[in-house]
Fold this sequence. Notes:
GO terms for molecular function: chlorophyllase activity. The chain is of the alpha/beta class.
Amino acid sequence: MASVKYVFEKGSKSVKMFTVQTKACKKTENSPMKPLLVASPVEEGDYPVVVFLHGYLLYNSFYSQLFNHVASHGFIVIGPQNSSLRLVERVNNFRQEETETSALYVVSGADTTEEIKSAASLLDWLTHNLASTLPPQVRPDLTKLSIAGHSRGGKVAFALALGKVVSSPIKISALIGIDPVDGMDMGNQTPPPILTYEPNSLKLDMPVLVVGSGLGELKRNALFPPAAPKGVSHEQFFNECCAPACYFVAKDYGHVDMLDDETKGFRGNLTYCIAKNGKERKPMRLFVGGIMVAFLKAYLEQEKGTLMAIKDNPGRHQ
Length: 318
C-alpha cells in the first residue's frame, strides 16, 4: 500500500514550470500559435509526454498544481492555452508580433473543429520543437505520448484520438478524460459529436482512463445548468469505450475541483459559482493526479500494481 499512497503525494522529481510563447512567421499547420505551460522534471532522463487540454473558458494556468504533481512522478506535462492569436507583419523590418485576442472557445462557439485541428497541429509541433525548450539533459519520449483533457478539453482529446476531423500526426499511446463533456444534454451535443449511445462503440487503439465527478451532474443554482450534464459526461464516455478502459468517480467532488486552490480573475471567479463544488479542491486534485500517474505508469511503463490496488479498494482514495 505504500506505493499506492505515493502516487497521491508529490513525487521524487524536482519540477521546473515555465511557459513557451510560440511565434511563427506565418500561419501553417505545423506552427501552433499558442502559449504553452510546461511542467518538466529537471533531472537527466527520458520522460513520457502528457498533453493536457484545458476546460471551457479556462486558462491552462488554473491546472498548474495538477501539472506539477504529475510531472514530479516523471512526466513532461504540456498545457496549451487555446486562444486566438493574431500576427501583425511590419513590412519594413518583417517583425512579427503576437497578440492574444480572446479564448478560442469564445471565438469558435459550440463547434470544436478548430480546437481539434489546433491540438493535432500542436502534436506535430512537439515532434520538431519540444526537446529544445526543455531543461538540459531532459529528453522527451514521444513514443510514450498521452493526450488528456478536462471537460470540453476531454471531448477534444477523445476526438483527436478517434481521428475526428483530422488524424493525429503521431501515435497516441494513452487517452485520459477528466470529467469529459460532449455538449449541453443528450441530443444537444457540440459538433462534431463523440458519443454514439452504443456500448463499446468508441474504437480506440489505446488504453483509456475516464475520471468523473459525482457533483458535476448537479446544478449549483437555478442560474446555471449542470457543468457536466448526465448523458453527455463521464459515465457515458466510459460506457462507450472498449477495453482496456479504467473508470473512477470522485463522488463528493465537483467538475472544477481539480483546479488550483486559487483561480483568480474573472474566469477564475466563475469557477466558484458555475459548478457545484466539494469542501475544498486539494483532495480532488490529488486524487486526479494520483490516478493519472498510476494509469500512465501501468500502461506506459508496465507498472500495474498501483493501479490494480486502487481498483481493488477505490473507496480508500475518494
